[in-house]
Amino acid sequence: MTRGSLQCFPGTVKDLVVNQVRTNAELKVTITNKCVCSFLEVTLLCPGFDSVKKIDPPTAVSMNGRNCLINNGNPIYGGKTFEFTYTSDVEIAFAPLSFREACS
Description:
Elements: E1 16-23, E2 26-33, E3 38-45, E4 54-56, E5 61-64, E6 67-70, E7 81-87, E8 95-102
Antiparallel strand pairs: 1-2, 2-7, 3-6, 3-8, 4-7, 5-6
C-alpha cells in the first residue's frame, strides 16, 4: 500500500480527492480516485445540496438525505477522475463518505 500512487489497497476515503472550482455561475467538481482499484457506489457528504439549481450531467448526483450518490453508483476507475458541474448560490462542502472497492 503506497499512498499517492496507484498501488493502494485497500483504499480509504482519503484516496478519493474532491476538488471544486467556481467558473462564473457554475461550480465544477472533480472526484479523483488515487488508487489502482475501481471505486463503486461512491457516496459523498453533501449538506445543502438540495438547494442546487442545475446539475450537469443530470445523472451525476442523486440525493439520499445529507449524502449524495455519485455517477449512479457506477465506478470511478483507478487513477481516473469523474467530473460534474452544478449551479448554486453557495459552494457545497463535499466530503468523501464511502465506496465499495473492486479489484481484479
